[in-house]
Automatic annotation (TrEMBL):
<keyword id="KW-0812">Transmembrane</keyword>
<feature type="repeat" description="Solcar">
    <location>
        <begin position="67"/>
        <end position="161"/>
    </location>
</feature>
<keyword id="KW-0813">Transport</keyword>
<feature type="repeat" description="Solcar">
    <location>
        <begin position="1"/>
        <end position="60"/>
    </location>
</feature>
<keyword id="KW-1133">Transmembrane helix</keyword>
<keyword id="KW-0406">Ion transport</keyword>
<dbReference type="InterPro" id="IPR023395">
    <property type="entry name" value="MCP_dom_sf"/>
</dbReference>
<dbReference type="InterPro" id="IPR018108">
    <property type="entry name" value="MCP_transmembrane"/>
</dbReference>
<keyword id="KW-0472">Membrane</keyword>
<dbReference type="Pfam" id="PF00153">
    <property type="entry name" value="Mito_carr"/>
</dbReference>
<keyword id="KW-0408">Iron</keyword>
<comment type="function">
    <text>Mitochondrial iron transporter that specifically mediates iron uptake in developing erythroid cells, thereby playing an essential role in heme biosynthesis.</text>
</comment>
<keyword id="KW-0496">Mitochondrion</keyword>
<dbReference type="GO" id="GO:0031966">
    <property type="term" value="C:mitochondrial membrane"/>
</dbReference>
<comment type="similarity">
    <text>Belongs to the mitochondrial carrier (TC 2.A.29) family.</text>
</comment>
<protein>
    <recommendedName>
        <fullName>Mitoferrin-1</fullName>
    </recommendedName>
</protein>
<dbReference type="GO" id="GO:0048250">
    <property type="term" value="P:iron import into the mitochondrion"/>
</dbReference>
Length: 172
């Protein structure tokens, strides 16, 4: 909530602490959890798609499952890109719930606060149709690709390092 409200165009919040204080004072504790179910609903398919795609790609480009940094980076980046693209509609709704963007609320003739994933899905469709669910998808993919590529390559490195070290300590 705080990160997204600070990122909004012409945000009235000048620091994270001031944003927390203002949101707490004007909207209460619930504002920090308004998109909680949407976040969970987004993370489960994201991680599932991400992991399954990574494993599938590793089978294709690294069938012997040896330590191969290039294959880990490529598979990790592509897996993150696919997962990000597939879950962008949920991210759009989460962002709307977190920001409570006034222009969108006014266009939809909503006074007060928007709550709930179903309401966010309806509002995105009402305002922008199907393309509205994919706004920011390219930026989301560009953000996720290097992040997931780095994460997988670091994971595979430590797995290799720890396994190799363990095997070396066993040999007489």
């Amino acid at each position: 909530v705080v990160k997204q409200r600070l990122q909004m165009y012409d945000s009235p919040h000048r620091s994270a602490l001031r944003c927390v204080w203002t949101v707490w004072r004007t909207e209460g504790l619930g504002a920090f959890y308004r998109s909680y179910t949407t976040q969970l609903t987004m993370n489960i398919p994201f991680q599932s798609i991400h992991f399954i795609t990574y494993e599938f790609l590793q089978e294709q480009v690294n069938p012997h499952r040896g330590y191969n940094p290039q294959s880990h980076i490529i598979s990790g980046g592509l897996a993150g890109a696919l997962a990000a693209a597939a879950t962008t509609p949920l991210d759009v709704c989460k962002t709307l719930l977190n920001t409570q963007e006034n222009m969108a609320l006014n266009l939809a003739n909503i006074s007060g606060r928007l709550s709930g994933m179903a309401n966010a899905f309806r509002m995105v469709y009402q305002l922008n149709g199907l393309p509205g669910y994919f706004k920011g998808m390219q930026a989301r993919i560009i953000y996720q690709m290097p992040s997931t590529a780095i994460s997988w390559s670091v994971y595979e490195f430590f797995k290799y390092f720890l396994t190799k070290h363990k095997l070396e300590s066993r040999t007489p």
